[in-house]
Amino acid sequence: MDANLSATNATRAVYHQVVEDAREASGARWVQLTGLEAGTRQVRQVAWSSLDLPPLRAALARALAAVPDFLPHRVTFPATINPAVERIYLAGEVVSAPLVQVAEGAVPATLVEVAGALGGMRHVLAVPLRWSGRVVGALNFHTPEPASASQGRMCAAFARQVALMLENKALAAATRRQVRELRVSRARITQAEDDLRRSIAEELHGQIQSRLLVGWIRLGEAEAAWESSPGRARALVSEVRGDLAELRERDVRQVSHRLHPAAIAVGLLPALRSLADRFHPSLEVELRVPDATLAADHPTGGRIPRDVRLTAYRVVEEGLGNAVGHGRARHALVRVELVAGALDVSVRDDGQGPAGGPPGLGLTLIAARVDQHGGNWSLTGAAGQGCTLRAHLPLLPPVPSGREEEILGEVVFDPLWDEAPLSSDGTGRERQGMG
């Protein structure tokens, strides 16, 4: 049994140790661990204890002779196959019943007869394993006689400890996976910041420095002509002043805006209007913001935090940039609306649709920004029908201590389907199990 854990020898060893410990603690003849697949509600074999006792070996040999093609690790059956199985996996009940009832329809009747006659496995105590409130499998204790009340309580307590252990292992694995994803995300953000710094450095060193150099040269010409040709000197100074004004208004402001949009301090809508102007006339941008959202975006008494406004701005910036760069769109509709304590942002264009392949660096950064707010995002569209980038940004920051439930909510019960389960002693044909 696994929960997003890799199918390693260490993982399989955990399951085999579970069934061996369960057999030793309960005194059962044989113990079997099964898993319930959530999506299909199929019951699958995961691990079982050793068949080293002489009666079990005799039963195994007779079973293989009776049904040579029987492969227990491939046995799978619906959780509705019979009433006893339904009670175990769907109702989550502890079931003590004859093996013939529990195995009805799941394995050939001949094997059930052999297991009872030679192996002494005539009864089953099946204890469901619960994981985050749902049944994910069961420990099945096979015994010659019905389990006593005290044995039942002991087996149920053991199963609870097993479920807790496996849940803790899944939580640890999910946490490790999220840490890896966080490291990848941070590396991409660092790469994007380095690329931005490099681009701005090139712009400062290239275009802006060149224009400053031209101004410096013309000021030198004006200084040289000041005595002999004051009119020309004044004209040169005036020309340099005009160039510097244009440099300040266009180039320097553009570089500053790339680092951080100053208009965000005034409000999201002014910043988005400024952003829309940057794309004109290549892209016609239409902004739709309800009055209630405008009121919440007020710079002095608004409800939208500045960091949320900045993330919303970056989402729109990415959507408009993709609309022009990849989609070759001519029109884009930007919607911003405050809904139930969150800011919903969307950018819909009339371009060629999403580009194929995995998300690029821009969308990866959007994902990281949105995740910081505990929100979610999506990119939808079809070829020739445009693209829609959406983001849902809660106004309140996520609660750090609540990650456990979120992680467990992502855990999927996933037994080692692709690996043939082994008996705990690892012997070849002793992978056979009944019931």
Reported for the largest beta sheet, the result is: 6 strands, antiparallel
User: Could you state the CATH homologous superfamily of the domain at 9-177 and 411-431?
Assistant: GAF domain
Shape: elongated
The proportion of residues forming helix, as a percent range, comes to 40-55%
Number of strands: 11
Structural class designation: alpha+beta
Share in β-strands: 15-25%
What is the CATH class of the domain at 9-177 and 411-431?
Alpha Beta
Q: In order across it, which strands form the biggest sheet?
A: 3-2-1-6-5-4
Using only C-alpha atoms, the radius of gyration works out to 34 Å
Spatial gap, N to C terminus: 17 Å
The low-pLDDT segments are 1-8, 399-435
Count of helical segments?
12
CATH topology of the domain at 9-177 and 411-431: Beta-Lactamase
Architecture (CATH level 2) name of the domain at 9-177 and 411-431: 2-Layer Sandwich
